[in-house]
Amino acid sequence: MSMFYHLNPSLFLFMQRPLARWLLVSMLLAQVPVASAMDFADVNGSPYSDAFAYLSKENIVHGYPDGSGRPYNTINRAEALKVISLGRSDLQNRATYYTTHMPPIGLFSDVGRTDWFAPYIEAAFEKLVVTGYPDGTFRPGRAVTVEEAITLLMRAHGSDGSGGEALPSARVQNRAHEWFTQHVNAAIEKNLVGRYDSLRLGAPITRGQFFEIAYRLHSTEKSGATAFKDPPGQVANAGTAYAPTTNEPRVIQIAQAQNPGATINIGQPTVSTVNHPYASQQFFSVTIPDADIFDLTITHPADPFSSEGILAPLHDGVGHLFSYPGAGAGKIMIYGHSSGYPWDTSQYTKIFRQVNKLEAGHRIYITYDGKLYVYEVTFEEAIDANDTSRFQDAGTGEELILYTCWPPDSIKQRYLVHALPVETVALR
Question: Which end of the chain has fewer CB atoms within 10 angstroms, the N or the C?
Answer without folding.
Answer: C
